[in-house]
């Protein structure tokens, strides 16, 4: 004999939940997306770049403004009467600076002009003569033009004379004139020009006997505008 113990559930009866059952949770508010590492790195790099740019700009002059390079503002200043830096008689006869080449342009000056910069530095050429280098010179036995470069420092800062640049060209076609190193022509001095002082530097540039037009380019330092002297040497 068998008995059927199956009975329908009683009204209002809820069986206990089985293993692993979790009651439903209320919905959560959506979370904002997180910034990726790439975005953070890019933002940080931009801030660093901006700070560096501000530091560099401020270090130029101290007030955040870039300092302009010295330029030529006054030209054709004749030497004062009795000035011992003027050319001697033989040098005057050798250089004819009043007759520069017609195509020399407005940016060039005569061989006897004094060029003044807006930072109170002046450059002039004196005692332009012809010569021939000795057998011990570099280059040897070469015709050249010998002259003196005078730099007058009227500013309140010293000038590093070793930063001066000198270049020469000769002839109508503008061939480069090699610098001459001989007795008394030692190149750029390794010294400074103090405020209120001047310095005279002997120099020589190749100038063949058949050529008369000479172009001499001088800059007191790497940042200053180059002064271009032109004229004919007899």
TrEMBL record:
The chain crosses the membrane at residues 39-60. Residues 62-80 have a biased composition (Low complexity). Residues 1-36, 62-110 are annotated as: Disordered. Residues 81-110 have a biased composition (Acidic residues). Residues 8-33 have a biased composition (Pro residues). This is DUF4352 domain-containing protein. Keywords: Membrane, Signal, Transmembrane, Transmembrane helix.
